[in-house]
User: Fold these one by one.
Assistant:
Number 1:
Amino acid sequence: MKTAIYPGTFDPVTNGHLDVLERASKLFPKVIIAVSENSEKKTLFDLEERMFLIKKNVLKYNNVFIGSFKGLLVEYALEQNASVIIRGLRAVSDFEYEFQMAQMNRHLEEDLETLFLMPNEKYFFTSSTLVKQVMKYTDRPLQLIPSNVLEALKKKLHN
Ligand code: PNS
């Protein structure tokens, strides 16, 4: 039974992430969405908030689980008996970073494969960073994030 890990910062989760997750859930019997706790990036939402925002959107899958990790991704993947890392690939601009990360993870753990999945093209330019930037200045309902994330962003940025 192959387990796949879908890691990320998810600050916050977007419909693009959820689109990739759904594709992964159709390919693997078990998918762990793994929220990074690392402090390299300053996040708007803390770890618990990021996990909570994901939770409501994945309850419909019976093969998707939420986890969190600190430190190296490959070590968490081994702990969880995962053999595949899922990453979403959008525009060409993602490639360089993703390529380096996949090569480093392979260098650390040869047998752990990275599998890139493309979200629906309507999410090709969706990123958590841009969503946060736009939501700073508007209350408009963006079609790029789930409704609970929209509410959480409004609360966090406008209060
Ligand atoms: O959503 P992101 O920010 O692009 O996710 C990046 C993430 C968290 C998957 C990546 O930074 C990561 O795996 N960090 C853990 C540290 C690690 O294992 N680094 C080696 C891979 S280069």
Number 2:
Amino acid sequence: MGAVPDITLNDGNTIPQLGFGVYQIQPEDTAQAVGEALGIGYRHIDTAQMYGNEREVGEAIRASGLDRGEIFVTSKLNNSFHEPEDARKAFDTTLSDLGFDYVDLFLIHWPLPTVYDGDYVSTWKTLEEFKGDGRARSIGVSNFQVEHLERLAAETGTVPAVNQIEVHPYLTNEAVRAYGREHGIATEAWSPIAQGGVLEDPTIAEISGKTGKTPAQVVLRWHIERDDIVFPKSVTPSRIRENFELFDFELDPADVEAIAALDRGEDGRTGPHPDTFAYVPG
Ligand code: NAD
């Protein structure tokens, strides 16, 4: 089994290219799932304020006996807290819930361009404060479209280290990925297997048959070879292990292309559209 590669971010910090996502894992199941993942070898956990399980992520990391510095932890700002004073309080709560004095990466979860008078710029400047005081080692965004990234570039002094967006074979999201490549913003691909929705695709089944790897491994390996960062989610120990075993094989370049050709554009999107998503928890 090869080791998980690190990706170097535009601020010089490194992030393991493969991690473990905890969206939709119930708080009562989170510590066990994260403990399982850490036991298998995952060293990168992706959580968020809106997932409601930061406390349990912190507990599992402490229970693992691993040093805090060995594990890369990401969290994200709740959509309710874009105004600077709210964001500051929410970030304090993230640190106290996790039980850590820093996070490795903190993201604006959604741009919400139709809420807060479309002002995600002051929110970004607030994240710059967290980086400045060292409590967020890196800062980035999630679900930002090209126009949102262009606005940050025009109006602020820090380029996001990452943009975490929906990417999988049915939504390759190429324009946003390309902007990131050109501007030093690493792409993190969320729902990398479309929550299981791409695993029965005949092209993926064929590559799975040819390589002897499972459909999930084929799709996750495809992301790895495209240099994106992924953190598949599962609560099933055998799948958590399967999703980690991606570094003892390679895909033919033609197969990487064949998977990318499954792109359905907007029809392939499974989550909300970032331009219109306006969910703000009460
Ligand atoms: P995913 O693509 O990782 O799919 C997870 C689901 O696929 C599981 O619930 C399970 O049903 C199935 N699955 C997992 N491994 C499998 C395997 N080996 N074989 C068969 N089926 C398998 O979906 P996700 O959880 O939505 O995305 C991963 C992570 O991305 C999340 O946990 C979260 O950390 C992040 N995310 C971020 C955003 C955002 O807005 N920033 C949105 C969604 C997800």
Number 3:
Amino acid sequence: MVKILCGIFGCISEDVLEKILDGLKRLEYRGYDSVGIAIIDNNKIIIRKDKGKISEFIKNLDLNNIKSNIGIGHTRWATHGAPSKENAHPHMDCSGRIAIVHNGVLENFLQIREELIKKGHRFSSKTDSEVIAHLIEDFINNGLSLKEAIRNTFKILKGSIACAIISTIEPDKIICYRRESPLVIGISSKGVFCASDIPALLPYTRNIAIIPDDKIVILEKNKVQAEDINGEICKLEYNEVTWNLEQAEKSGYPHFMIKEIFEQPRAISDTLKIPLIYIDRAIEYLENKNKRIYLTGSGTSYHACLFGSYLASHLLSMDIRPVISSEFTEILSSLENSTVIAISQSGETADTLNAIRYAKSKGAKIIGITNTLGSSITNLSDVYICTQSGPEIGVAATKTFLTQLISITLLFLRYGLKKGKISEVDYSKLMSEINRIPKIIEEILKKSDIIKNIALKYSSKQNAYFLARGINLVTALEGALKLKEISYIHAEGYPAGESKHGPIALIEPGFLCIFIAPKDNTREKIIGNIMEMKARGAEIFSIITEGDEEIKEISDEYFEVPHIHYILYPILCTVPLQLFAYYVAVFRGLDPDKPRNLAKSVTVP
Ligand code: F6R
């Protein structure tokens, strides 16, 4: 699984500072909000870090006369703690003997941080990562060696981790550890290197090893040694990388969009690790009696709002209204005693920010759901939840959409549990269904060739309807938006029941109708809608639950997803439609990463 949140680069070599800065520049494409480096000079760790771009950071760097041959660097994409100098990596322990950089999400850091504070540790940031340096220090204070302390630290810490550590205790080493987040190493006559991704290593070596999960790798001059978490020596497998720089940035995928689609299992796993305290803080704003709750967002994020609205009705028996942000001020007048849940991956969409400002001016409270910590939405919201997708570079939203759906599900499920609207048993059942999603999506992605063939068959169509009932209307709308924005095919998402009130007039032989028809309580009616379209010569492509022979029979093409609780089907069924849009665009000779007339962040109203 690929993980992009932050960039790590470390090396033991000549001209370490230049190499670290160059390595970080080569990781810039991943997106970041702050930069930092730590080097060892005269047995002292020197740290420089700041919010902002690498070019600015270099301009202000005051380390001209330092000649170090060991160091680590980091570009940060904020997930815990806003972008700021304090929160930028590297982080140090209290004694100044240990510096760490980390990429990933630590699940149990809050509890460990509290225990360490009780023991006298002083923290200088609001990040989850800083706890790593202090925990290592704590073990060392209790008599363990540096390596033993590092092993114990990673045995205790839960979550996704790629980490590089330097210490004045063993000043000739960089110690790396990896679990779920990527970390690669390379060795050549130019030095020994570690990095989050291959592009950063290409100027020095093409002989690269991926650190296996749960392994520690010790880098020394001209030497690399891998151990398991108990200190047993193990082997690293080196491979010759033949990618050019552009291919390497996309981890070998031809486009960012497909890379990001394949990152979804990881993005969801990390979003599922959001500490409950963040969810509980948001719930406080939902709890007042007689409160009205609204959801607002634009484009794909509006579809996440619609999902939230169906979820609230089905799970909580609550009517929560979704409102498209650009219409918010036109349709809502009195917002006193209300809470608005505003969803925006970028956190900078002008329409959504206008809706928030308007709602605030009328006395509403705001819960933000965003992928971009430090964005305007995090500043304007009373409380926010940060989805853990990592930066999304393709213009079409993919992984950020699925993590929005996961976040809103976590929020409403927990709210339902607290309010007694969902029993403990139902909560646990649903949570175990949700926890299966990353694995299920991995399985769906393994079948991407099926979608590729269907996309080839339909790539020259001029029109498509995406039809569904109930909560899968969300999937239909999102599938149509994806197809239209990157393939320029005219595509419309409709409630299937509504199709006979007008849209059916367009159906003639060969018109493409895509049905989202998993096994839920709308299935019988959907079969009726399929037959109506089929009778008029439409070509039918259905997304169905595995083994649904009846719908297979009446469809020209189908794609099967595993069975899951019905309210979670939009999360699964969106994936084949993202793949469909992507492959259709590619077959039409278009660049899916850069659709015409669209920008990643729409900052004009
Ligand atoms: C569709 C897409 C757009 C965005 C919309 C809102 O693929 O990317 O529809 O969803 O512009 O953007 P955010 O979520 O950044 O507010």
